[in-house]
TrEMBL record:
Function recorded in the entry: Catalyzes the insertion of molybdate into adenylated molybdopterin with the concomitant release of AMP.
Top-level EC class: transferase
Protein's recorded name: Molybdopterin molybdenumtransferase
Organism of provenance: Aquimarina hainanensis
Gene it is expressed from: glp
Pathway where this protein functions: Cofactor biosynthesis; molybdopterin biosynthesis
Amino acid sequence: MISVEEAIQKVVKTVQTTTTSQTIRVREAVGEILSKDVIAPINMPPFRQSAMDGYALNLYDNTTYEVRDEVKAGDQHHPVLEKGEAVRIFTGAAVPDTANTVIMQERVVMNENTIAVEGLVNFGDNIRLEGEQIKKGEIALKKDTIITVAGIGYLLSLGIQEIQVYKKPSIGVVVTGNELIEPGKPLSTGKVYDSNGGMLATALQSLEYKEISEYSVKDQYETTKEVLLTALKENDVIVLSGGISVGTYDYVGKALKELGVEEIFYKVKQKPGKPLFFGRKKNKIVFALPGNPAAALSCFYLYVYPALEKLRGNKNFSLDKKEVTSISSFEKKGNRAQFLKAILEENTVTILEGQSSAMLQTFAVANALVYIPEERSRIMKNDTVEVICLPI
């Protein structure tokens, strides 16, 4: 059995970012990660551009200018200005080549076809130079950049419609157990509704993982092995729930071993989620989570989610953590590290009742986990604690 810190480091060390890329439309790329540099195909701005509404001037030693013309955004004509001449101009419009400054409209006095300029005017004022933001051939966005809404606007402004991003992994969610039935069917004695399969698949979908396949298997060794073999063939990552403990009918560990899955670690000194398995088969990643729902979801956030992020190119990803004041007290039993469901509010956190690994009622209202390391035995009211912010 290894510590939480050791388990996290083993996941980080084992998981490598995919080398598989795909081309997608820029407008569909929010949250995706660039797999190669994006090169600017044009200068931005593509011409000298007015930064505001006003007048473009050809400067001379006087404060009065004759207004010759008007240039709106999108106009393609380029008036030629002699010294002492001006054109009315609007934000985003092309500045005539013979103009060398733009003065805002609030600083002029209009008199028929002339304007009187008030205050000091400097060469180049309020003109966005061609290529001022970026020049053709320069790197617009670097490889490994996460695409934001602003990034999409930036790329579209350069006329870029498609980009190459790391391909997100395909994920197989496998739930095991003779006792599980689908929600909606009659519930007979000894049976429970399967919550883990839908819960884990929904968590993945909410985190923008789209290639998700779901599998279910009864507690039978050969059937378990067959389903796992299929899941390994069809997916990059396998996330199992249940069947990984040491009970008579827990067949997952034995089946994974026979299928050639290398064990990186099994069992973590933590509560909930002690019977956690992490392994790999060539470039396939396997997590076997406990069957208890709250334990499965805790392990998903703490280990599976960061692994998936690194796999898809988010190399520096980590869950948001912060130190806050606890307004609750808690006495830990045993010497395992513990993750407690809690409600985080600004700089305080409340530890919730009902911390059983089998119950989701508390988890359903939690937005954070309070982390108690192995060496700490209790939390007193007003103590400083570390909390992990849940993404969803």
